[in-house]
Amino acid sequence: MKQRTEEVLFQEWKRGDCEAFGELFGHYSCRLYNLGLRLPGNVEDAQDLLQETALKAFRTQNPCQSESTFYGWVRKILMNLFLDRTRYCNRSGRNRVDSQVDWTEIEEQCPSEAFPSPRAILEEQDDIAAIERALLELPEPYRPNNQKFRSEV
Question: What pTM did the predictor assign?
Fold first, then answer.
Protein backbone atom coordinates (compact mmCIF):
# COMPACT_ATOMS: atom_id res chain seq x y z
CA MET A 1 0.00 0.00 0.00
CA LYS A 2 1.46 3.36 -0.97
CA GLN A 3 1.84 6.16 1.58
CA ARG A 4 -0.46 8.44 -0.39
CA THR A 5 -3.13 5.77 -0.50
CA GLU A 6 -2.90 5.36 3.27
CA GLU A 7 -3.32 9.11 3.72
CA VAL A 8 -6.37 9.14 1.47
CA LEU A 9 -7.90 6.14 3.25
CA PHE A 10 -7.26 7.71 6.62
CA GLN A 11 -8.92 10.98 5.64
CA GLU A 12 -11.89 9.13 4.10
CA TRP A 13 -12.30 7.10 7.29
CA LYS A 14 -12.26 10.27 9.41
CA ARG A 15 -15.09 11.57 7.20
CA GLY A 16 -17.10 8.40 7.92
CA ASP A 17 -16.23 6.00 5.07
CA CYS A 18 -16.52 2.48 6.54
CA GLU A 19 -14.81 0.79 3.60
CA ALA A 20 -11.79 3.05 3.99
CA PHE A 21 -11.44 1.91 7.59
CA GLY A 22 -11.68 -1.73 6.46
CA GLU A 23 -8.88 -1.27 3.96
CA LEU A 24 -6.72 0.66 6.40
CA PHE A 25 -7.22 -1.86 9.21
CA GLY A 26 -6.73 -4.72 6.76
CA HIS A 27 -3.30 -3.35 5.90
CA TYR A 28 -2.16 -3.84 9.50
CA SER A 29 -4.27 -6.85 10.42
CA CYS A 30 -1.48 -9.41 9.87
CA ARG A 31 0.90 -7.51 12.16
CA LEU A 32 -1.83 -7.12 14.77
CA TYR A 33 -2.79 -10.79 14.53
CA ASN A 34 0.84 -11.84 15.02
CA LEU A 35 1.04 -9.66 18.11
CA GLY A 36 -2.25 -11.05 19.38
CA LEU A 37 -1.01 -14.59 18.81
CA ARG A 38 2.12 -13.97 20.86
CA LEU A 39 0.20 -12.52 23.82
CA PRO A 40 -2.34 -15.19 24.82
CA GLY A 41 -0.58 -17.96 22.91
CA ASN A 42 -3.50 -19.53 21.08
CA VAL A 43 -5.28 -18.94 17.80
CA GLU A 44 -8.82 -18.47 19.15
CA ASP A 45 -7.82 -15.76 21.61
CA ALA A 46 -5.70 -14.00 18.98
CA GLN A 47 -8.65 -13.98 16.58
CA ASP A 48 -10.93 -12.63 19.31
CA LEU A 49 -8.45 -9.90 20.18
CA LEU A 50 -8.12 -8.86 16.54
CA GLN A 51 -11.89 -8.72 16.10
CA GLU A 52 -12.42 -6.77 19.34
CA THR A 53 -9.64 -4.37 18.32
CA ALA A 54 -11.26 -3.72 14.95
CA LEU A 55 -14.65 -3.10 16.56
CA LYS A 56 -13.30 -0.80 19.24
CA ALA A 57 -11.22 1.20 16.75
CA PHE A 58 -14.13 1.48 14.33
CA ARG A 59 -16.54 2.67 17.02
CA THR A 60 -14.17 5.29 18.40
CA GLN A 61 -15.42 8.82 17.93
CA ASN A 62 -11.96 10.42 18.11
CA PRO A 63 -9.50 8.35 16.11
CA CYS A 64 -5.78 8.95 16.19
CA GLN A 65 -4.60 12.28 14.78
CA SER A 66 -2.67 11.09 11.72
CA GLU A 67 -2.23 8.05 9.55
CA SER A 68 1.39 7.70 10.68
CA THR A 69 0.18 6.78 14.17
CA PHE A 70 -2.70 4.54 13.08
CA TYR A 71 -0.79 1.30 13.66
CA GLY A 72 0.47 2.47 17.04
CA TRP A 73 -3.04 3.48 18.02
CA VAL A 74 -4.71 0.17 17.06
CA ARG A 75 -1.77 -1.73 18.58
CA LYS A 76 -2.40 0.08 21.87
CA ILE A 77 -6.10 -0.84 21.68
CA LEU A 78 -5.16 -4.50 21.19
CA MET A 79 -2.71 -4.44 24.10
CA ASN A 80 -5.25 -2.77 26.41
CA LEU A 81 -7.94 -5.30 25.48
CA PHE A 82 -5.54 -8.15 26.27
CA LEU A 83 -4.56 -6.59 29.60
CA ASP A 84 -8.21 -5.96 30.52
CA ARG A 85 -9.10 -9.58 29.77
CA THR A 86 -6.12 -10.84 31.77
CA ARG A 87 -6.99 -8.63 34.74
CA TYR A 88 -10.59 -9.82 34.65
CA CYS A 89 -9.54 -13.47 34.67
CA ASN A 90 -7.08 -12.87 37.51
CA ARG A 91 -9.62 -10.95 39.61
CA SER A 92 -12.40 -13.45 39.07
CA GLY A 93 -10.13 -16.39 39.83
CA ARG A 94 -10.85 -17.96 36.48
CA ASN A 95 -8.43 -19.11 33.91
CA ARG A 96 -9.19 -18.77 30.20
CA VAL A 97 -10.54 -22.31 29.74
CA ASP A 98 -12.59 -22.44 32.93
CA SER A 99 -14.43 -19.19 32.17
CA GLN A 100 -15.50 -20.17 28.65
CA VAL A 101 -16.69 -23.76 29.04
CA ASP A 102 -20.27 -24.87 29.58
CA TRP A 103 -19.56 -27.59 32.14
CA THR A 104 -23.12 -28.88 32.48
CA GLU A 105 -23.23 -30.42 29.02
CA ILE A 106 -19.81 -32.02 29.45
CA GLU A 107 -20.62 -33.40 32.90
CA GLU A 108 -23.88 -34.93 31.68
CA GLN A 109 -21.92 -36.97 29.13
CA CYS A 110 -19.37 -38.20 31.68
CA PRO A 111 -20.37 -41.03 33.99
CA SER A 112 -19.51 -39.65 37.42
CA GLU A 113 -18.72 -43.04 38.93
CA ALA A 114 -16.06 -43.92 36.35
CA PHE A 115 -13.91 -40.80 36.69
CA PRO A 116 -14.14 -37.22 37.96
CA SER A 117 -15.62 -34.51 35.77
CA PRO A 118 -13.33 -32.03 33.99
CA ARG A 119 -14.58 -29.28 36.32
CA ALA A 120 -13.70 -31.36 39.39
CA ILE A 121 -10.21 -32.00 38.02
CA LEU A 122 -9.63 -28.29 37.34
CA GLU A 123 -10.99 -27.32 40.75
CA GLU A 124 -8.72 -29.87 42.43
CA GLN A 125 -5.72 -28.53 40.50
CA ASP A 126 -6.63 -24.98 41.52
CA ASP A 127 -7.00 -26.06 45.16
CA ILE A 128 -3.62 -27.82 45.13
CA ALA A 129 -1.96 -24.77 43.58
CA ALA A 130 -3.54 -22.48 46.22
CA ILE A 131 -2.42 -24.78 49.04
CA GLU A 132 1.12 -24.93 47.65
CA ARG A 133 1.25 -21.13 47.39
CA ALA A 134 0.04 -20.84 50.99
CA LEU A 135 2.64 -23.37 52.17
CA LEU A 136 5.40 -21.39 50.47
CA GLU A 137 4.36 -18.34 52.49
CA LEU A 138 4.90 -20.19 55.77
CA PRO A 139 8.18 -19.63 57.65
CA GLU A 140 10.85 -22.15 56.67
CA PRO A 141 10.64 -24.44 59.75
CA TYR A 142 6.88 -24.88 59.27
CA ARG A 143 6.98 -25.79 55.61
CA PRO A 144 6.43 -29.47 54.87
CA ASN A 145 8.65 -31.30 52.45
CA ASN A 146 6.97 -30.56 49.12
CA GLN A 147 7.46 -34.11 47.80
CA LYS A 148 5.90 -35.58 50.92
CA PHE A 149 2.93 -33.21 50.59
CA ARG A 150 2.45 -34.13 46.93
CA SER A 151 2.37 -37.86 47.68
CA GLU A 152 -0.35 -37.39 50.30
CA VAL A 153 -2.62 -35.43 47.95
Answer: 0.56
